[in-house]
Amino acid sequence: MKLLIVEDQPKTGHYLRQGLTEAGFNTELVADGSTGQQLALSGDYALLILDVMLPGRDGWQILQAVRSAGLDTPVLFLTARDAVEDRVYGLELGADDYLVKPFAFSELLARVRSLLRRGSSTHQETSLQLADLRLDLIRRRVERGGQRIDLTAKEFALLEMLLRRQGEVLPKSLIASQVWDMNFDSDTNVIEVAIRRLRLKIDDEFPNKLIHTVRGMGYVLEERQC
Amino acid sequence: MRRLSLSARLALLFAACTAVVSLFAGLLFSRASEAHFIELDQQLLEDKLIGLRRALPDIQSSQRDARLADELSRQADLSLRISGSDGRRWYDSSSNLPQTLPHQPGLSTVSHDGTDYRVLNAPLYPDTPDSPQLSLLLDITHHQHFLQRMQHLIWLTVGLSALATALLGAWAARSGLRPLRRMSAVASGVSAQSLNARLPEEDMPPELAEMAHHFNAMLGRLDSFQRLSAFSADIAHELRTPLSNLLTHTQVTLTRPRPLEDYRETLHSNLEELQWMAQLVNDMLYLAKADHGLLMPKREPLELAEEVDLLLEFFAPLAEDARVTLSRDGDARLQGDRNMLRRALSNLLDNALRFTPAGGEVRVRINDQAKSLSLSVENSGEGIPADLLPRLFDRFYRADPARHEGSSEHAGLGLAITQSIVRAHGGQIRCESENGWTRFVIELPKGE
Questions:
Q1: Which has fewest Cβ within 10 Å: A12, A19, A37, A85?
Q2: Is the Cβ of B410 closer than 8 Å to some Cβ of chain A?
Q3: Residue B343: closest C-alpha in chain A
Q4: ipTM > 0.85?
Q5: pTM of the full predicted structure?
Q6: Backbone phi, then psi, for B327, in 5-degree steps?
């Protein structure tokens, strides 16, 4: 799966590529708009990450060229201009998502994964599982080590999200957006508390902890060997 | 050149106006009295003429002089000259009559030897072609004196009234311009430290009320400039602590080789500081956008009860943890921006939850009115002192001074952001605190 980053700031571009490469993506970086557009039009990429302000051709122009060539490659915009018009404009042109600088890399990674997943066919799962934790999607039941665990609706949704995206670091903002549909910047610690309460039910009685905090980045559900 | 003061200018204008008006009236009066005198003189002379004609049926009569003297004796200021049609003088009632008199028939005025005469020329026998000419002369010196005195009086009046109005006008202008002086006193009292001085707009005269209004508005803008510069100082202050943490921590970590775990720890700690700074910068950008009127809410039809319930569900874990009860009451429909309003309310709820003691209560009430609606978020607990209420919406203001800057999750911008969002929707927000309840009330117009 190949990603194209068009970003003219060398440091930002470098770290984006390093981060995405280490997250397992085959990533290519170009610094100018014209080259970026040529590559984007080749149709070899699963996702485009475009800066808005670029030398040569700007992000909007690349997006337009891609869409008018009939390509439906998902496009994620990086913009420093936090103006409403920018967002409206970008989304009208057919951008799939946008991030406003400064953004957290974990946020970018989570969104990249969401966009890539969107395209792939999702077969209907009936249950999700990690180690001895099992979530029954049809009967809305959770078990760990054969022991039934009672969860509230939101706790269930939260655990489902963690399970579906196990191994991924999920930033708090993404969790708030996906589980509670709260799409705004907030410095509230609701998510922390919600995770703590979920941990209490899922992890506390078991030696093998599954929910982990990645300081300053978010939460991840995975099995770690101690 | 220094221009005349406004009062002096007004006083001079008043004086000039009075002078012109009184001069005009005086001239009119003197002209009218002169005309009146002429009319009287003419009447008198014509009466005399009739008498003379009757007294002198025949000019050649021997009793002519006696009759004439008799006729004239009754009026001391009257003189008579009779001359033939050839211009020869036949009779003069007095020796010091002017040598030449106007020839045209009718009334005229002649001056001779310091005496003024009104002269009436007429033929003695109007029906005869070669009739001798009568010239009746009336001494009108006393009339002229009267008119002259009156002219003096007029000039005096003009001068005095101009002087009087100049003085009165100066006084009137000074007292009329008192609001202006008050304005300048307020303006001179304004300094960078006292931008909250305002002019009383309601007891200003209408001409100045508008100016006072603009003046106050200007002071308001200056005040906001000052707050803006204080805001910049606050930003620098807020960023200083995390920045110095970052610098110190990074430098200390790099002073000597360490186990890998230490580097990881440093980076994590740095990440937290950075994240806090990023959040701060994003909030500041949001507020800056609001300040520039760029916060443009979408107009989506919203069910407020539904929105509030979703938010209460979101905050439920936090509330349960703090053992605080959340409740909602009422409903209303509104055109507004879902995400912005959620953010505004979430700040209020977050704030309320932080200040509610365990076992307390947070209530959201929606009050639907005809054209507007009010939404209040109230929490039980220790109230907020009245003098702090207006400051709650100030940027970086924290109600609990114990929380020192930089170290907390909350930068103190939440309520300011809520206020910006409410204002962008055309609404108002206020806070009241009494009887152990603190209440934030949002008033919003419903839109169409």
A1: A85
A2: yes
A3: A184
A4: no
A5: 0.64
A6: -150, 160
